[in-house]
Amino acid sequence: MQIIDGKLVAATTRAQIAQEVAAMRAGGLKREIGLAVIFVGNNPASEVYVRNKIKACEEVGIKSYLCKLPEDSTFEDVAGTIERLNQDPDVTGMILQLPIPKHLDENKLVDLIAPEKDVDGCTAAQKGLLWTGRDSLIACTPFGVMKLLDFYNIPLEGKNAVVVGRSNLVGKPMAQLLLDRNCTVTLCHSRTKNLAEVTSQADIVVVAIGKAKFLKANMVKDGAVVIDVGMDRDENGKLCGDVDFADVADKCSYITPVPGGVGPMTVTMLIANTLKAYKQAN
Predict the structure, then answer these.
(1) Could you confirm whether 120 is annotated as catalytic?
(2) Given 5, 118, 120, 244, which residue is catalytic?
(3) 8 A C-beta contact, residue 176 and residue 130
(4) Could you tell me the pTM of the whole model?
C-alpha cells in the first residue's frame, strides 16, 4: 500500500508554476497575472480557504485581489462586483467563494463570471466545454485528483472507476475526466442500491459524499486505488475524510490520506488554472 502524498505533489506543482511565472515576468508581462476572490459574508471555513488562496498566489508570484462583501449584500451588489472584475484587464481569473449567503442565487451569480476568467470551472460554459471533450478550465478538486493519479503513474485506461457523489463541483466533473481517460465509469450517489457491491468491483474509487468514514473495507476490492475527497469531523471532532482510512488502507494499492491528500491540490490547481487563463487571454 502506498500513501499518495498530496502535499508533495502540490509543492512540486507550485514550484513549477512559480518558475514559469518568474520567467514570464522576466520577459515582461503585457498585463498583470491576477486572481480575484469574491467573498460574501463571514463563513469561518471560507475565511481559511480564502487565506490559503491568497497565500498560494503570493508563493508563486501571482497577484491576488480580495473583494469582501457583507453578509446582507444584494444580488445586484455581487453582480456589480463580478461585472467590474470581468472588465478589469489585470484580473486574469476570479472565483466566487462558496457557499454564499442563502438569499443569493449561486448559479445565476456564477454564470455572470466571464467564462475565460472562470478559473474554478463552475460556469455552465466551462462545464459545457468539459462535457463535450474540449479544452476547458476544469473544476479544481477533480483536476487535482487527476494530477495525483498522473504523478504516481497510476494507469487509467480500461480501468473500472466508481465515483461516489454527484455534485456539480466534484462528482460529475470527476466522472467526466476519468471517462476522457478511457476508464469505464460508474457514478453513484446516496440513492444507489447495493452501493458496496458496486464499489467493491472498482479498480479506482473516488469518494466525495460528505459522510465521515463512510467507505469501509468491505466496500473495496484488494489492490484498489482509493481517493478520498471528503473533509469531515469524526465523533471526537478530529479531521477525517469520507473513507475509513484505518479500516480500508491495507486493502489498497494506493490511498489518499485526510488531511494531506486531495486538499492541498485544490488551491494548487486554482493557481494552475489562473496561469492557463492568462496564457489563453494573451
Answers:
(1) yes
(2) 120
(3) yes
(4) 0.95
